[in-house]
Design a protein that fits this description.
Aspartate Aminotransferase, domain 1; 13 helices; Aspartate Aminotransferase, domain 2; single chain; alpha/beta; three-stranded antiparallel beta sheet; 2 domains
Length: 384
Amino acid sequence: MRVYLDNAATTPLDPRVLKKMLPYFTEKFGNPASIHALGQEAFIALEEAREKVANILKAPKDSLVFTSGATESNNFIIRGLALANKNEKRKRIIISAIEHPCVREAARRLMVAGYTIDYVPANKEGIVTAKALENLIGDDVLLVSVMMVNNEIGTIQDIKKLATIAHRFGAYFHSDAVQAVPYLNIDIKALKVDFLSLSAHKFYGPKGVGLAYINPDIKMQALIVGGGQENNLRSGTHNLPGIIGLSEALYLAYRERDEYLKRISKLQKYFWEKLKQEIPEVLINGSWEKRVPANLNVRFRYIEGEAILMDLSQKGICVSTGSACSASDLRASYVLKEIGLDKNYLNSNIRFSFGRFTTKAELDYTIKALKQTVKRLRAFSPIN
């Protein structure tokens, strides 16, 4: 049996989304920037997709910039803001200590431009508290960036509260919301964020397309320049099939949200209870209560997560040890360090992430395989 439990890394393209995309590879292939009939047909489709996304996110249509994915969106927002708003009084940027690598690196690149980067800590539950941010922020901060849902441990942040604190000090607020669809209701107005990032392949859309919400009242510097597409904020020929796919995937995710959440929550609870019953000394990483139901990050005492991953892969089961974007880097997870895990267990975790096509039969197969894998690996563990 082949089992895919790495949906936090990427999701399969929903066949309904592919069906919507296909005409824009063939008969509707026009460039939205062209003024002839085929180009104008493409332009209308582009703007209809933008409006569909705007309605879901409760955002102004002209505030949405289509990108190649959340990595580009995060870089554009963080660096574009800082480069366009050079202010000697605001030379500090705060990001959470458990941000995605692309947010961390984008912020660090600004140090050469004179910015100081500070990290607001997360507690042992993987939560960035209001108090932690209040202890660090000041009138010298330009931007605060805290992800809505952590990509490794699935913990949920109170974005509205954190954004309110940032605004109280005159700072802007950004949230990487890649892992939040459709688990949280992303309402731009209600959340009070100035910037937000999404990536289609995390919610059954195509790879290579994403979104940046930009408060239209805030000055930004484009990082990709050329033909002036996307209101001069992101030049380059539009990936129209991808944009159509993103809008349809987002629409389906929220149209089917209630039913999906009920189903995925049951699967998560079932898997966790079976795991505890069948395998001794397994512990959850991060909060259980403030966690999206698709994520279960678990540590197995006395064995390396990498060994578990490889053994399960041989049995047709796909899982991960953390962020897909740093899978080639075998150093201990900085997220797990931040929440205070003992150094002996920093490399003992596995992230199981469930999705739209996960079945109970697949979870039963995984538990059976895990039981065998853990027993075998613990038998020759040097720290057992």
